[in-house]
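An example makes the point: we let one protein speak, the chain in one-letter code, the fold tokenised, and here it is:
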Amino acid sequence: MNPKDPIVGWLVAVVVDDGEAGPERRYFAVGRPDQQRAEWAAVDQALAFGRVATSPVAGMEPVEALGALPNSLARRMGLADGMVKPLGSRLPRRWLPSNV
């Protein structure tokens, strides 16, 4: 971590089953520096899309922090402190930090 560019958020994947298409990963950008709090905030948002998996599905963890978001990336992408942005079900590559 660069001390001049602190971690201010996380990119989190949550496995959700909407009952129709089956389980799928949904991605969220979360403006919380603490990883566990970011994961819980993503789970809270994921509940709007369906039931959150409680165990691994097809080798995917139910909740997984994919990478920390440095301040420069979060600001560029419009992620404010405490904000949770749903990013859809396709891997949001532009949100991935360069160190992932």
About this structure: The beta strands are 7-17, 23-30, 51-52, 63-70, 84-88. DSSP finds two helices and five strands in the chain. Residues 7-90 form one domain. The chain has one domain: 7-90.
